[in-house]
Amino acid sequence: MLDSKTIGVIVPAFNEETQIELVIKNMPEFVDRIVVINDYSSDRTAEIVQKLVVSPDNISPVCIPIPPKLVSTLYNAADIKLEKIRKNDAKRLKLHEVYNKDPDNSRIILINSLENGGVGSAMSIGYMWCRDRKIDCTASMNGDGQMAPDELGFICEPIIDGTANYVKGNRLSHPAAAYIIPRVRFLGNSILSLLTKFASGYWQLSDTQTGYTAIKLSALETIDIAGIYPYYGVPNDILVKLNMAYCTITEIQIKPVYAIGEQSKMKVRKVIPRMLRLLTRLFFKRIFEKYFLKNLHPLFLFYMYGFISGFSAFVFTVYIIVQLFVLNGSVATGEYIVFLLLFTSSLQSLGFAMWMDIQDNKDLQIKGDLSKSQWSKLTSDKMY
User: How many CB atoms lie within 10 A of CB 187?
Assistant: First the structure.
């Protein structure tokens, strides 16, 4: 525990037999639950975790039982309805089973997915398990060992002290990032981070692809856990869900960790077009639901006009090119004027929309960091 708050860590794992034991055994002592989601691995991942689960040392000093069912009264019909909705949400998850015989008193929990669903599917299972047990802070660390365990406290602290609803690590801000992170990954991460600014509304974010995160219970209870995108692109989808729920977030600088035995399972040719489609869909979903359905905001109108006029300007561009260079014809002065008006008004409208978007969301992202000296002082008083 940290400052009397319970800490859970989700570890999604798919074919991580060489790394998973390292990740679990190096988990900080203040972690109350290590929830390993074995995403139908074909190697020895499940076998290795099972041995740790049945170890006599796998007993948590903190019991986190499932909260009792709500009793219907005149004033909690909404709470009863929400409980039913969440039970139905659990049915949307991939089929899975808990390996532990006594999970409420075990520190290491193994949940085996009965079919491969992707990292997002594993995260959904882990998030729902922690949410249903009312764990105060739920962090995530991948099973490949690329996340330094000594930095978990930095990730959790803004959640524990109430600074933010969601915290994510930032490898790109580390001074050695350009030297440690492979160039292709660094470039790809930077581009995806830029595109995610548009999609998520968190315009000051960086390193959006990191899986080293922590989320507050109240935020976890707000987002659609079962609807988390199942494949590569999970953090991007979660960020959009958090923004639509008006959750505050912050970033903590973390060390980039590579070449420790991990094996990348990402196939770039498949990931890039899939990510572009995902981010485009998430952008329009956020704009439509947040700024039209929930609150008719002028930026929705500016964005829509900007895209419509921009598309019209593109059509005029094609028309002019065909007329001049294919048909060897001519273009009337009025047609040039219409094109220029559409093009300039599109740029202006999109510019206004982006500015409004930035202003509307600037209070949702909290700048700040926690130095190691501050952390050492805090943990000396807060651990257990």
Answer: 11
Cα separation of 162 and 158, whole Å?
6
Average pLDDT, rounded, for the chain: 91
- Pairing type for strands 365-366 and 249-253 reads parallel
Tokens encoding 128: 């729902």
Q: Residue 370 has what pLDDT?
A: 46
The domain defined by 7-292 carries CATH number 3.40.50.80: no
351 vs 306: CA distance, rounded Å: 9
β-pair partners for 140: 10, 213
* Dihedral sign from CA coordinates of 214, 359, 275, 187: negative
d(CA 191, CA 207): 9
In the block, residue with structure tokens 């561009």: 317
> What's the DSSP call for residue 10?
E
User: Which stretch of DSSP H or E encloses residue 2?
Assistant: none
User: Which residue carries 């008719």 as its tokens?
Assistant: 296
What CA–CA distance (Å, rounded) separates 102 from 192?
Answer: 42
How is 143-184 classified by DSSP, letter by letter?
A: TTS-S-GGGHHHHHHHHHTTS-SEEEEESTTSTTHHHHS-HH
Q: Tell me the Ramachandran region of residue 189: left when phi exceeds 0, alpha when psi lies from -120 to 50, beta otherwise.
A: alpha
Q: What is the pLDDT of residue 252?
A: 95
Other Cβ atoms closer than 10 A to 237: 26
pLDDT at 377: 46
Bridge partner residues of 168 (DSSP)? 213, 251
Q: Which residues contact 8 (CB under 8 A, 6 or more apart)?
A: 31, 32, 33, 34, 35, 130, 133, 135, 137, 138, 139
**Single pTM value for the model:** 0.91
Q: What is the mean pLDDT of residues 289-299?
A: 94
User: Which of 126-130, 334-338, 345-349 is least confident?
Assistant: 334-338
Query: What whole-number distance in Å separates Cα of residue 272 and Cα of residue 192?
Result: 9
Share of the chain above pLDDT 90, in %: 73
